[in-house]
């Protein structure tokens, strides 16, 4: 086939004839493959979470915005939950919630309070969980080519992060 395509490129052979001769044998093999193909059933991965509404185990599903948790009792129970990734930092605004990693509609990662909409804390930069020694505002991680540093969004204080702490 590759030689035939080279001949077509050189203008020595008519491309319609080459493709029609290839397709005749290919079409027969395609029909056989369709007849012999079995339907594939993808098993859901069970999580440790329990459904808030019916008590059945939650399973991981894949949707158009990525993975999420859904009740294994679908269609009787239609409960779903987002997969939450905690970063281990208390919310600097309300001091009650935890900061979690989220994704914007365009897929960009940002950080916000898990108590949203009661607390509207959000940040594009990952909170470090450490207060600024100058003004007590929570430091955030800033990444660049040379590594990661901690920076205060309020007063501009910066400190380099040791290599062992960089993720």
Outline the structure in words.
With 167 residues, this protein is of the alpha+beta class. The protein has four domains: 2-36, no CATH class; 45-82, no CATH class; 84-124, no CATH class; 130-167, N-terminal domain of TfIIb. It is built from two helices and twelve strands. It has a four-stranded antiparallel sheet with strand order 1-2-3-4, with no helix packed on it. Strands 5-6-7-8 form a four-stranded antiparallel sheet, with no helix packed on it. The chain has a four-stranded antiparallel sheet with strand order 9-10-11-12, with no helix packed on it. Strand 7 and strand 8 (122-123) form a beta hairpin. The two termini are 49 Å apart. The mean pLDDT is 85. It holds the Pfam family Zn_ribbon_Top1. Residues 49-85, 89-127, 131-163 form the DNA topoisomerase type IA zn finger domain.
Into which percentage range does the β-strand content fall?
35-45%
Strand element count:
12
Helix proportion = 10-25%
Low-pLDDT stretches are none
Radius of gyration (CA) equals 27 Å
Distance between the ends: 49 Å
Question: What count of helical segments does DSSP give?
Answer: 2
Estimate nothing, just give the exact number of structural domains.
4
The strand order across the widest sheet is: 1-2-3-4
Order of helices and strands: HHEEEEEEEEEEEE
Tell me the major beta sheet: 4 strands, antiparallel
Can you tell me the overall shape?
Answer: flat
The pLDDT mean sits at 85
Q: Helices and strands: which structural class?
A: alpha+beta
Domain DNA topoisomerase type IA zn finger: 49-85, 89-127, 131-163
Protein name: DNA topoisomerase type IA zn finger domain-containing protein
Pfam family, one: Zn_ribbon_Top1
Organism: Paenibacillus cisolokensis
